[in-house]
């Protein structure tokens, strides 16, 4: 085969190996779907929100300095929320059979720029457990922050609640099945071209020219050979009779 294939030759190879390509796509997408729906457990999330704001403060004297102080403390609070000082108490009160590191990996803390609202998100295989942990983390954090930071500026803005129809956040089944189908397509197309390259059978005059580096100057018709063969066979039977 030429090193550079024309578009027509590429389409010809794909058409020739179309069954192989379709089989790879269906199998890879199907196996991935089976794993996602029946083997890999879904991950659910629950979220609670806390508000960083001074308690019992006179709004008339609450100025820019106090606002800046609250915003600057948020980064510190984000670290404290996932610290052993908070999580060990959560594990103890909920009697969780996990390590502090494992619980920390389930927690993500975020907030918008210049926002005093902090989101505490828990991801867990058990949806009900995720809700309980999210609320307990916020509760323990509010209780402990006056001792840890000597401030009292935490309010629970909203607690996590259990939904009647929870939806998993991980894995994204549609995304992973699509990726598997594309991977199967790429792999099968690559295999199709590899098989074509490894196929050393002579199919036409062009293959002969490439192998021998000589031009083809004649061609024997297959139809004439068949007729000649039939004629020879009939003469042979006539002589025997």
Automatic annotation (TrEMBL):
<dbReference type="InterPro" id="IPR003856">
    <property type="entry name" value="LPS_length_determ_N"/>
</dbReference>
<feature type="transmembrane region" description="Helical">
    <location>
        <begin position="174"/>
        <end position="195"/>
    </location>
</feature>
<feature type="domain" description="Polysaccharide chain length determinant N-terminal">
    <location>
        <begin position="5"/>
        <end position="94"/>
    </location>
</feature>
<dbReference type="GO" id="GO:0005886">
    <property type="term" value="C:plasma membrane"/>
</dbReference>
<keyword id="KW-0812">Transmembrane</keyword>
<keyword id="KW-1003">Cell membrane</keyword>
<feature type="transmembrane region" description="Helical">
    <location>
        <begin position="18"/>
        <end position="40"/>
    </location>
</feature>
<keyword id="KW-0472">Membrane</keyword>
<keyword id="KW-1133">Transmembrane helix</keyword>
<protein>
    <submittedName>
        <fullName>Capsular biosynthesis protein</fullName>
    </submittedName>
</protein>
<dbReference type="Pfam" id="PF02706">
    <property type="entry name" value="Wzz"/>
</dbReference>
<dbReference type="GO" id="GO:0004713">
    <property type="term" value="F:protein tyrosine kinase activity"/>
</dbReference>
<dbReference type="InterPro" id="IPR050445">
    <property type="entry name" value="Bact_polysacc_biosynth/exp"/>
</dbReference>
<comment type="similarity">
    <text>Belongs to the CpsC/CapA family.</text>
</comment>
């Amino acid at each position: 085969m030429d090193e550079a294939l024309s578009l027509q030759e590429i389409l010809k190879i794909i058409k020739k190996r179309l069954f192989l390509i379709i089989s790879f796509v269906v199998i890879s997408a199907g196996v991935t779907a089976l794993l996602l729906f029946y083997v890999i457990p879904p991950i659910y999330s629950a979220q609670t929100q806390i508000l960083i704001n001074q308690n019992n403060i006179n709004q008339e004297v609450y100025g820019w300095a106090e606002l800046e102080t609250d915003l600057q403390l948020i980064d510190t609070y984000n670290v404290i929320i996932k610290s052993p000082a908070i999580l060990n108490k959560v594990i103890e009160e909920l009697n969780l059979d996990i390590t502090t590191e494992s619980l920390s990996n389930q927690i993500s803390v975020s907030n918008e720029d210049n926002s005093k609202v902090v989101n505490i998100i828990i991801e867990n295989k058990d949806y009900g457990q995720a809700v309980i942990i999210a609320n307990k983390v916020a509760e323990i954090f509010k209780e402990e922050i006056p001792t840890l930071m000597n401030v009292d500026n935490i309010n629970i803005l909203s607690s996590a609640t259990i939904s009647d129809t929870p939806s998993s956040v991980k894995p994204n089944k549609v995304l992973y099945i699509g990726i598997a189908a594309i991977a199967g397509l790429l792999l099968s197309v690559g295999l199709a071209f590899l098989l074509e390259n490894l196929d050393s059978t002579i199919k036409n005059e062009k293959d002969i020219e490439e192998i021998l580096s000589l031009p083809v100057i004649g061609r024997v018709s297959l139809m004439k050979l068949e007729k000649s063969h039939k004629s020879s066979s009939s003469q042979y039977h006539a002589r025997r009779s």
